[in-house]
Amino acid sequence: MKISIKLKSSIFLALLLFITVSLLSYLVLKGIERDQQKQYEEHLAQQTKIANIYVRQIYLMGSIKEPRAFLKEKGNQIASQLDLMSGMQVSIYDMSGREVGNSINIGTRTDVKDILVHGLNDKIAYQIVNDKLDYVAPIHDINGQIGVIKFEYSLRKNIEFYNNIKSLFFNIGTIVFALTFLGGYFYFNDLTKGILKLNKDASNIEKGFYDEILPLRRNDELGELSQGIYYMSNQIKNHIEGMEKEQEKLRLAVKKLKELEKQQKTFIGNITHEFKTPLTVINAYIDLLEMYSDDSNLLEDAKSNISKEAQRLYEMVEKILYLSSLEKYDFELQSEKINIKEILEEICNRMKGKAQKFNIDLLTNLQSAYILGDKESLMHIFINLIDNGIKYNESNGKVFVNSYKKDGNVFIEVIDTGMGIPVHAREKIFEPFYTVSRDRSKEYAGTGLGLSLVKELVEKQKGNISILDIKRKGTTISIVFPLFS
Question: In this protein, which residues make up the domain named Histidine kinase (predicted)?
């Protein structure tokens, strides 16, 4: 999707202004909030000092010297007097946390248990509930702490002031944003006109319309760029004739490239001679049979090895051609809605005969699920994996084929109890021509292309294949396809 520079600049300007106004408002409001906090903390600290002085005077002037009895006797008097002095509701607590005095005997009282604990430990603490602040501080006599005083401070004026400033910033910010955006919009609009003119000039150069290019009359970088484009177009026009001469040189270069391409094809042809290795083995056995035609053991050995080499050659050629066709003809895949359970059951039924031949139990645990895929490719994928599970298994081993749905995907696992794949080989196992063991591959006529082709087919159908890390013996290959919706 193409977004014009005019729209981009408008969006950028709007975002820049919004962020600037918002950040400025946030910082100012935070500063006001911190200043208000500092003011009421200092005010309450001062009231606490006054309260301690007043309590100490009453204590020294009185006859009761036991702190608990003193607070019980004088608590309401102290609270009422401090209420008059501070203009705040005052409560007095003894060292057991029991309220022994309150300047207002009726009315709503907030729960101050959480902060009272700090006051009893000779610390200052406060909590804010709605528009009220409960402030607790220790009370001392000449010998130490004798109780706790609580001030109930109203934050209503602070909150009203804060909200008024916030509303003012919002209104002013909106006006500033609108006016600045309009001014910036007209400025950028004029700027983008020049850029669009330069874009049109570049398009005219591409089309060869050099006479339609005129420089912009601007005293800035765009004007300089426009002048440069104008002179460049004249230079291009003057050098067209020179470029025609270069065409002959280009023709000669193309001729040389074709010769290089021919050499490349010859090189590729030389590589195909690598496929003659199986044929060499076959010819060698034929020569031996002509020489020792009466040797029955040689005959059996030759039949077995010629069959293996022929099958190996056939699979190598067939799979290389198939890999090449996949890279060239993506559209040949015929996608359709497929029940993964049904196709796996069909494949497992086909493979039961081979499993029995190798004394392998083929077990399934399948869940019905639909995917969008190519049936022939899916057949090739799972036949190859199950065939590997059978061939590279141990006698009386097992091959498990499981499928289940999870998180919008269908998971298919092919598990065997065979010799397994070493950790160092798991990253390379899906590469063309890679085999874990050359002896094992020769034993079963393996070319190292099977899993490479499987991976190619899985990815063509938006799937993923991996070898799971398991602790037990054997190999677990997992394939994930998105569910059809």
Answer: 270-485
